[in-house]
Amino acid sequence: MLKRILLSTWLWSLIGILLLSLFAWFLGPYIDIGGVRPLGDEVTILITSFALTMIWGAYYGAQYFAYRQAQKRLEGGLTEGEAADPKAKGKAGDKAAGAEVQMLKGRFEEALGLLKKSAGAEGRGRHYLYDLPWYVIIGPPGAGKTTALVNSGLRFPLADKLTDGKPGAVAGIGGTRACDWWFTDDAVLIDTAGRYTTQDSDAKADAKAWTGFLDLLKKNRPRQPLNGIMVAIGIPDLLSASRDERAGHAAAIRARLAELYDCLGVRLPVYVLFTKTDLLAGFVEYFDDLGKTEREQVLGFTLPLDDGRGEAAVTGFERELDILVARLNERLVDRLQGERDIERRTLVYGFPTQLASLRETCREFLDGIFLPTRFEERPQLRGVYFTSGTQSGTPFDRLAAAMASQFGVDRQRLPAFNGPGRSYFLSRMLRAVMFNEAGMVGQDEKAERRRKWSARIVYALTGLVTVGAVGLWGLAYMNNRKLVTEYNAAIAAYNEAVKAVDLALVDEKTAEQNMSRLLDLLNRLRALAGIDRANDPVPLTYRLGLYQGDDLRAQANEAYHRALEAAFRPRLLLILERRIKDSINDPEALYLNLKTYRVLAGAGPSDAKLVRETFDAYWKQVYNKPEFQDSVTRLVAHAGALMERPLAELPQNTDVTQQASDILTREPLAKRVYFRIKQVNAITQLPFWRLGDKGGRLLDDVYDTFAGNPPSKVTMPGLFTHEGFYKGFLPQVQRAVREATADSWVIGLPVEQSQSPDALARLEGEVVAQYEDEFIQRWDEVLRSLRLKPLDGGTEAVLPVLAKMSAPDSPMKLVTAALARETDLGTPPPPPAAPAGGLAVPDPAAALPAGGIADAAAGALGLGPIGPAGGPKPGERVSDHYAFLRRQVTAVEGGKAPVDEAVAGLKTLFDELNQLRAGGGSASGGAAAAQQVQILAERLGPPLSNWLAAAAAGGQAAQVSTTRAQINEAWTGTVAARCATAVKNRYPFTAGAKDDVPVSDFQALFAPNGLVDGFFKQNLAPFVDTSGNSWSLKPGAAQNLGIEASTLAQLRTASRFRDAFAPSGQGFGFQYTIEPVALDPSVAEAKLEIDGVSMTFNGGPGRPTILSWPAQMGGGFAQLTLTPGDPAATAATTEAQGAWAAFRLFDKAAMSNGTSEAEKVLRFTVDGRFVTYRIKASGSLYPFKMPEFRSFKCPATL
């Protein structure tokens, strides 16, 4: 019992807990983790030790409880399984059978009770049944299992109580009702009594009950439900059975093994016992000389461990059997010499051969059980053993039987054994082999191996940790000793360096003398203080409660701050005095330097950030070479370190500070506050607004800047955006104003006065005005800088720009909308979206107070009203200034936004020019579209007006450049040739010409919408100024047509022909009135006949006659006849013929002007006699005898 206690895990774990407690008590206070000592006081150590002990007790208490419960469940399962036995239920009506069952149950329970008492009395604990290894014995009836167990030499503790002092079994109940239980000191053996091998009774019921028993074992002994299986079969049963019968035995045993494997889930070692070996001829005689101890040896062999993956262990049976036979043969000589009886010597001599003759039979039997198959896992054969429990029966001689069968002679029967029975080869085989390997079984071989290796690793790691901890402590001690030595050496070197540096101050001009040496000294002290490495983790090899670095650093830190105060701070003050004098003309820099000076002198609140930033800017300016950057960084770090502790107030240079204060008092405070707002990190870190992010992908293809930079590179500081106003500027105004007034101590003003409500409000309004001025100035610059790309490259240059300007993602629209949005400071940002499932966030602009939308926005930002009451609201001036931008992107009721109209106009212009380029459009259409864009430009304000005007001009220029060639081609192809043919050397264009211009040709050329008029309207009208007496090209792009003035004059003449010959503007032809006015006294009668109309005039009142040209009928003749009053005189006549007869006739008269341009007076003189007529055309022009007829020439080209 003492040995068990000494080897128990609970004892050694308790010792470990005690050692940990001692460790915590003696060494715990020295453990330092990141500056924290978790075991630094006795109470903590006691609590830790108590907690460790409680954890240990809880763990083993839970283990003991689980152990005990498993024991109870196992015992209960063994004794209460009858109720679940269907066979027992089927016999419930049989009283005798019931009584027998109750008797067996009582006997089994009594056996378990006696077993626990016996185990407790002998010091093995009350869990005897649970702790012992369990084995199942499988074998056919009569295999000699009982005999082998009774004579095995094992101790049966229940023999005196239940079996009359003799070894015996206890009958099982429930699932083991047909089993015999053998309780020994070393193991629990369950003899299946043969029926679970053959199952030749009620197979279904037996199998179900047995499976239930196995499940009970698996549940309550999960790691080792069984420790092994013994397969027992008698040698006579094998030798007397046929080959088929032996195969049947093997198959039945293999099935039972498979059943055990499947139910329990573990590969159990199988020990095969060939019993009744004493019935082999010569067995008794061969081993007759063995004493009791020798008979307890093992006759057989244990095979290598079969892991189920390699070669099956059963394949080694023959080899091991040959070794065993060879061993028997080695002993044969000595045994023969010791035997005198000739018959017994013969039997002794033949025994090894008799055993060897079993090779084939046993191999076939074992192969049937243990050889692997494709469908099931092979059993694990652990060993094969030959045993004899007692000697009874008649031995048989296999050799003699074989010879008798071969030679046909009678076999001589051997005499039966009649001596006292003795057991052979059982005791050590059970105890030393089988029971000694009880721990071999595991739930999973791999898991068991991992568990064992894990335990080994834990033990190894524990040892390594222990050794490592001791080694680390030793190393930590050495490292800290070295650290102290190095620190002392550094301090000594520092003291020597101080002696070589002149730290005396003279004035501000010499303040930076020896600064490099001073910097070296400060760097040394700072390094010793470890300030720059304060957050670096301390290596483990320096800690473990021995670290001295913190104490050493504290001493160095004190020396460092003394040096900063004594040598560094005075120099900084002198530098600032010089900076104040140098910045007299720069109010912003002056204020910054003065404030820093007062802070550093201890005359104001501490502001480490201000000091660092001021000197960082200064030293970067002074030491601007790359090699000095590290020095600048270190100097700034020293300045910051100086400000880490409260500064004692030092005397100031009042001459310098008073002068600076006087100057700053004259500087507008609002300007300085606004400057400070712009320096705030929250402002400087606002992202830049980029036009490239707002104008879309086509921005740089459409726009240019006057500076020549791509528009996508146009940026605006984030402060001057809609978001910057509400999220950057407004939240800073009141804070900056209050800080600035709170800083009035810098310039000597009383704080109370400067922080009055009215003064603060006025200052806020002035600061806002500063912001608004710069906001407008900056955005005006952006508006002025943007322009369309130059559109002077003809159609190929203009069309791509127009296409992109009129695209759905038009940069013009996007830019205008972006500009309107950023400058609309009167509209606060939308409220944040409500969280999912939460309440909506109220819109700060939903209910505006009387102060207006800016105050509502300020309220939404958690601010009070900004600026004086009744004054302009923040951002209002900006919104008003850029209201035109919002109008351009806002749709009017029932219509489009102006910017959308502009896009549509540009789209029309693009379409017209594109058609014109393709030859399918007209110059007038393109010109009209360009004119419409120009009208839009004149109606809309900037910036759209500027961009549209440029687009209209570019479009018109492109149209002109495109149409010039087309116009000329159209003129020469459709007008010029026909015109020249029609008028050349023809009347009325050539005076006195024999041939007339056919009226049809004249009409085709000069009628309204005729060739000339139609061509002009379609191609030239948009470009020609027709308002004056002489036509000219319009200013601008039309000048690029290059049409000569003479050509325009001919076109104007053609238009006068149209007006004269088609005064109604419709059709062709005109009416005219002829009225006689005067007649020569010598003429009795004047007769005028034109195109079939005759008019007679005798000198009395004339009557007007209306005629038409061209005549509807009877045309082609005109004649004037003057009949004299003297009958003897001959009448005078003049005439003309052809379609132009009237024109030819009228050409013979002298013409004078009438009362209008359409009226003329014609005086005909024929043979010295005259007649006068007044002719008035129905239109505004006089078509007869037009001087343009003689000057008109058809232009060959334009």
UniProtKB/TrEMBL annotation:
It comes from the Bacteria. CDD domains: Ras_like_GTPase. Residues 1073-1178 form the Type VI secretion system IcmF C-terminal domain. It holds the Pfam family IcmF_helical. Signal peptide: none annotated. Residues 204-461 form the Type VI secretion system component TssM1 N-terminal domain. Keywords: Membrane, Transmembrane, Transmembrane helix. The chain crosses the membrane at residues 12-31, 43-62, 457-478. Residues 965-1065 form the Type VI secretion system component TssM1 helical domain. Residues 519-824 form the IcmF-related domain. This is Type VI secretion system membrane subunit TssM. It comes from Zavarzinia compransoris. The lineage of its organism: Bacteria, Pseudomonadati, Pseudomonadota, Alphaproteobacteria, Rhodospirillales. The gene is icmF.
